[in-house]
Amino acid sequence: MQGRVCLVTGANRGIGRATAEGLARRGATVIMVCRNRAAGARARQEVIATTGNIQVELLVADLAVQAEVRALAQEVRARYPQLHVLVSNAGVYHQQRVTTADGIEATFAVNHLASFILIRALLDIMHAGAAARIVLVASAAHWRVSDPEDWEGTNGYRPFSAYSRSKLANVIFGYDLARRLEGTGVTVNSCHPGLVHSQLLEAIYDRWWLRWLYPATKRLLTISAEQGAETVLHLATAPELAGVTGKYFHNRKAAASSPLSHDTAFGDRLWQLSLRATGERPAANGRAIAAQ
Fold first, then answer.
1. Distance CA 188, CA 130 (A)
2. Does the annotation mark 205 as catalytic?
3. What is the CATH architecture assignment of 5-279?
4. Cβ–Cβ < 8 Å for 135, 173
5. Range with the largest mean pLDDT of 79-88, 195-204, 222-231
6. Residue among 69, 84, 200 nearest 138 (CA)
7. Among 36, 93, 126, 132, which is least packed, fewest CB within 10 Å?
8. Domain chopping of the chain, boundaries
9. Cα-flanking dihedrals φ and ψ of residue 283, to 5°?
């Protein structure tokens, strides 16, 4: 990975931190994108100390704010003429319905729309760096979606449903973008990293009827962030995956995703909704985004 420029979102902890370290260990130039400057600075210093690679940069952005995502893209473009790997890893899980400064439900905003904005804004420097790879960190939770087109939870917010829908959006976006980029030298794949012991998993279990299960789940079912990053790093670096695109991976192998994730009409509606939600296409007849 010498000479390759790689960007990882949500890079100060968990899978993102382990992915950044893995890329740095392989000799890449790594851009760590974090929301909190202090936490990001600590993580950057740890990655440098652990790997001996000083080509590690911290960029700070709150991915819940669309203006900050666009500013992040501009900063990356100003600093780097080429981008070879983009790992969209940042994710949130909210127990209560939260809206962003842009008026979007926060789980959908961070887990999907931020990627939609950032990746599309950086495609020109990825084309310049082709062959280039986009990796979307999704989840097997995308199989467990109820009310699939209620992307913002306006029909009644349930945290795991909101999270599952956002992960379905990741998989669908991966397939759709791969089709649109076919033949460009930029590949797009998504993955389920496994049940990783993380703050996000703790948030999922942060309900009185689930808290008693968490110690057993952690001990018997979860894997480490480093183990979770293995499939992500495989997609980002494996020579045998050169040219492989439009796939969903688990345990470093192509795997089946849900039937709904392959519904191209459903995917096109998500793409059009995403354009409206990010202000790239006006809402029809002034109706709310989630109703389109």
1. 12
2. no
3. 3-Layer(aba) Sandwich (3.40)
4. no
5. 79-88
6. 200
7. 36
8. 5-279
9. -65, 140
Q: Which of 80, 93, 163, 248 is catalytic?
A: 163
184 Cβ contact partners less than 8 Å away, ≥ 6 residues apart:
127, 130
Please name the amino acid found at residue 76.
Answer: V
Residue 219 has pLDDT above 60, yes or no: no
**Tens-place pLDDT, residues 165-194:** 999 999 999 999 999 999 999 999 999 997
Q: Are strands 132-137 and 186-192 parallel, antiparallel or unpaired?
A: parallel
Alpha-carbon torsion, ordered 222, 225, 230, 235, to 10 deg: 110
Q: What is the pLDDT of residues 57-103, one digit of tens each?
A: 999 999 999 999 999 999 999 999 999 999 999 999 999 999 999 99
> Tokens 């959908």 label which residue?
108
Mean pLDDT across 137-146 = 92
Closest alpha carbon to 9 in 105, 116, 159: 116
- Rounded Cα distance, 139 and 263, in Å: 18
